[in-house]
Design brief:
Helices cover 24% and strands 24% of the residues. By secondary structure, the chain is of the alpha+beta class. The chain folds into three domains: 272 residues, Peroxidase, domain 1 (Orthogonal Bundle); 104 residues, Immunoglobulin-like (Sandwich); 102 residues, Sandwich (Immunoglobulin-like). The strands form four sheets. Strands 1, 4, 5, 8, 9, 13, 14, 15, 18 and 19 form a ten-stranded mixed sheet that branches. Strands 6, 7, 10, 11 and 12 form a five-stranded antiparallel sheet that branches. A four-stranded antiparallel sheet has the order 17-16-20-21, with no helix packed on it. The longest helix is centred in the middle third of the chain and has 16 residues. Bound molecules: 2-acetamido-2-deoxy-beta-D-glucopyranose (NAG) (8 copies).
């Protein structure tokens, strides 16, 4: 009963319409954080003291580096001409060598994000996601996330404030970035709930500490430097702070003191008095910081989790059988052996088919364990498809209740797919990718999509056109095979096609070495 109520409520949650390759990919990094199918970001900050580039007790943390990196990447923004902002220009050595970007935390963050980047998740999106995952997993509020940042092709003009600068200079820098003096106080107080100042990067501010719990000589901003909380404000107000930017020996570099007291302590006092005010202010300011992007970049809507999300949906043409496999994630649901999940599919002949109960795969969680999701699998062991009938869309039955995206169904395309007749030649290594194309579908272009990066590290897709076969080769009565010979055994290919002026891509990718010998 409980399950039914929950799921009925979830159906009402608004999300985007599946499929949307970009939103699907961004949602995956955003919400598949721990457990089954976890993307790996949250694991790097478990526990929040973790610092993957050093052992324990360095005094450093990945979480602090990730948040600092996002701010420094954004801080080049110039509101008047729309240049700079979150565009991953911080990855350029030229920016990292500037005094305003002292320390190796930026490079470390960019390296740690490598595995998250793909054609739909830019480097800049990954830096925004890193900050969000750090904040949310280490005690902070949920941050609204939009995707779609583009990655700069070259460094931006400098623009990060430095501790020794005057209050006027700080106010001007934050104004250029689009923040009022009050918001400046907020952003500094929110960012500095994590981390501290490291001796190596700022030897004039922090000396050698001779502290076995801070081997890398990091003097922290507050006593809870791996946790999001308002201790940065309460310790400042109570006079117990040990922040090197408030009670540092040289008053010139006590920039947080100047900033916090710049409005007579009004804002920082409101944070010290109310953890809720602090938290909600930080949630807003962090989201705005991450959404500060160069003019012309259009961000997506705020990404919310899909209540029911098909994942890894893949077709393979295997001689006379079309194989369909995939997974489905049920959001905000906990493991329940009595839950019965079934797949339904509609074919091109207008028939609907229903599977037996799907196999349970595992649970995942997100947002510091706040949300839980369960995963089920479907595959060719229980789904036998007639290629002529094909598949138009999927839907699910959860304890008998239909989940079909409010009548739309979860559309899938079976116009083209990898064929299991693809093969490899061992010596010299080469191979062939075969694509099965549905007869009667007007495919104006068919191509392989090779995932690679450009000369400044941005993910790109290289398209390799497949020439239509001179004389049709039948895969079976409903499909024809188009082939391409290839020589790179490591290259990973998706398949793309243009149909009716629309580009479609498979989400599955293949190397020819996966297949049998030709
Ligand atoms: C910001 O852009 C305006 C307009 O192009 C320019 O006049 C100003 O110098 C820029 N500010 C900085 C700090 O580069
Ligand atoms: C304090 O810091 C400023 C700015 O870095 C520097 O110019 C000055 O020499 C420092 N004063 C002392 C006493 O170290
Ligand atoms: C702000 O608070 C600090 C810490 O309690 C105190 O030292 C300082 O005098 C206050 N400044 C103003 C302008 O009230
Ligand atoms: C998650 O489910 C619980 C009931 O199990 C419900 O109270 C809560 O509102 C749901 N949260 C979201 C964000 O859907
Ligand atoms: C295939 O699907 C069935 C039914 O959902 C499931 O029990 C089985 O574990 C799945 N096999 C694989 C390899 O995923
Ligand atoms: C691939 O190579 C084989 C063997 O050389 C050749 O017979 C075939 O025509 C080639 N196919 C294509 C699509 O180029
Ligand atoms: C296929 O599509 C192209 C472009 O949309 C169009 O020009 C062509 O007439 C179509 N061919 C058929 C057979 O429908
Ligand atoms: C489809 O892909 C081609 C080649 O990459 C591109 O030029 C075209 O703009 C794309 N069309 C749409 C509608 O996205």
């Amino acid at each position: 009963m409980n399950v039914l109520l929950t799921l009925t409520y979830l159906s009402a949650v608004r999300g985007y319409t599946w499929p949307s390759p970009q939103l699907d990919a961004l949602e995956t990094v955003r919400f598949n954080q721990e457990g089954f199918n976890a993307g790996g970001l949250a694991a790097l900050i478990q526990p929040c003291t973790a610092y993957i580039f050093g052992g324990p007790n360095t005094g450093r943390s990945d979480a602090a580096d990730w948040i600092r990196t996002a701010y420094h990447d954004m801080a080049t923004y110039n509101k008047s001409d729309g240049t700079g902002g979150m565009d991953a220009s911080i990855r350029f050595i030229e920016e990292q060598e500037r005094p305003e970007n002292a320390g190796n935390g930026f490079d470390n963050t960019v390296i740690a994000m490598n595995s998250q980047i793909n054609r739909y998740v830019s480097i800049a999106d990954s830096l925004a996601l890193a900050a969000i995952v750090a904040i949310e997993n280490c005690g902070g509020p949920e941050i609204a996330f939009r995707g779609g940042r583009s990655d700069a092709g070259e460094p931006n003009a400098p623009g990060v404030p430095l501790p020794e600068q005057s209050l006027e200079t700080h106010i001007a820098a934050f104004a250029r970035q689009g923040f009022t003096p009050t918001e400046m106080i907020g952003l500094v107080a929110c960012g500095h709930t994590f981390g501290g100042v490291q001796h190596d990067a700022f030897p004039d501010i922090v000396g050698e500490l001779d502290d076995p719990t801070s081997i890398d000589d990091v003097a922290h901003f507050d006593s809870t430097f791996v946790t999001f909380d308002n201790a940065i404000a309460t310790e400042y107000i109570s006079g117990t702070t040990r922040s090197p930017l408030i009670v540092g020996a040289n008053d010139t570099t006590n920039s947080d003191k100047q900033i916090f007291s710049s409005d007579g302590n009004t804002t920082i006092l409101s944070f010290a008095t109310s953890a809720e005010v602090y938290t909600s202010t930080c949630a807003d300011l962090f989201a705005r910081m991450l959404d500060t992007v160069p003019a012309g970049v259009e961000l997506t809507e705020v990404i919310t989790p899909l209540p029911i999300k098909p994942s890894s949906v893949e077709f393979v043409m295997n001689q006379d059988t079309m194989e369909l496999s995939g997974q489905v994630r049920l959001w905000n649901t906990t493991e329940d052996p009595s839950l019965i999940v079934q797949l339904q599919w509609s074919d091109h002949l207008g028939e609907t088919h229903t599977t037996g109960p799907l196999g349970f795969l595992g649970t995942s969680s997100s947002t510091g364990g706040k949300y839980s999701a369960v995963w089920y699998t479907f595959n060719s062991s229980s789904i036998h498809l007639d290629p002529a009938a094909g598949v138009r869309s999927l839907s699910f039955l959860i304890n008998g209740v239909l989940e079909d995206q409010n009548g739309l169904g979860f559309a899938v395309q079976d116009a083209f797919m990898i064929s299991s007749t693809s093969c490899q030649i061992e010596n010299p290594p080469s191979g062939r990718i075969d694509v099965a194309v549905r007869n009667g579908v007007n495919v104006t272009r068919l191509y392989l999509e090779e995932m690679t990066t450009d000369n400044v590290g941005r993910p790109i897709v290289v398209e390799l056109d497949i020439t239509p076969p001179a004389s049709p080769v039948a895969a079976n009565p409903a499909y024809t095979v188009w082939s391409m010979n290839l020589t790179d055994p490591n290259a990973l290919y998706g398949i793309g096609a243009q149909i009716g002026g629309v580009n479609y891509s498979t989400t599955d990718q293949h190397r020819f070495v996966e297949f049998e010998v030709c």
